[in-house]
Design brief:
By secondary structure, the protein is mainly alpha-helical. The chain folds into 2 domains: about 5-85, Leucine-rich Repeat Variant (Alpha Horseshoe), CATH 1.25.10; about 170-319. It contains 9 helices and 2 strands; from the N terminus they run H-H-H-H-H-H-E-H-H-E-H.
Length: about 325
Amino acid sequence: MDRKTRRLLKRLEHKDPKVRYEAVLALGKTGNIELIEALDKVATLDQHPKVRDLANKAVRTLSTLQQRELDRKKAVMKAQMAQEKFDWPTLAQERMLKQRELTLTDDEWNYEKRLQKVREEKEAAELKAKKIARRRRRMFRIILYLALTIAIAGLAVVLREILDKTPDDTEEALAEMQNIVQDQQAALLEYCEVLAFDPASNCQTPTGVITLDCKTLKEVSWSAPPDWLTVDEPTLEGKNLLVERVLLTDDRLNTIQAGIDAQCSGKETINPAEWPDYMNMSSAIVAGFNLANPAASEIQAELDALNGEAESTPESSGG
């Protein structure tokens, strides 16, 4: 074995897989069948899949060359036997040695091949088990997601029914409307302050603040009217104007919030002097108060009247 081949064999143990790959490629190109054993070990034990794959190809190629060499020698032997020009003892000894070498080589190859096959079967079984486990986990997550979705949807329906429950009588409807209007009045007053209007001027005069915080402006909230609050609600028969005032107040609040969202888009602060619709916010606040304040007074008067009727009823019955 020449020096170059020995250097290449030494490179098969190099830590860099690229160096090992090039060494296997060079050894395979030599066509030296004596390298089958070394390359077969690389094909079985090397840690890098590309190096193992190339070594497998090299082993197959050299094994093919070895078989062709054996076939050629057999053909030469047959020709010599036909011509009866051979030394029987020498030929028999040489043949026995070749068969023994081939048998040993085949045994080693078969063992390592069986070992590789066992490893491949083990890896395939582990991979299959992992796929099954992933499939089961995926199915469990899907079932869990569906269960959570159904539970959340059911909870949302229950909460909506609770929050939007239609009042049983006029007094209950008016009491709920009173809470809504009070919430609207508080939101209007808060808008008046955070938008830097003077409450003493009925929110019509700016205070002169030059910077408004968008986060604070967007934090103003109020209770939206429930779905049952319409002019067609039986418990509010004859109170269409009152219902419309509450709904219109909600519209004014939404108009204010929409204007703030548009002006604060992509900004942390705004300057009232650079806001073209700034005074329109004042007009919307004033319009909201002009709707909410009469509504609040009317609701209170209606509730007082209902409570007065309820108190007088026992006395009338007792007389």
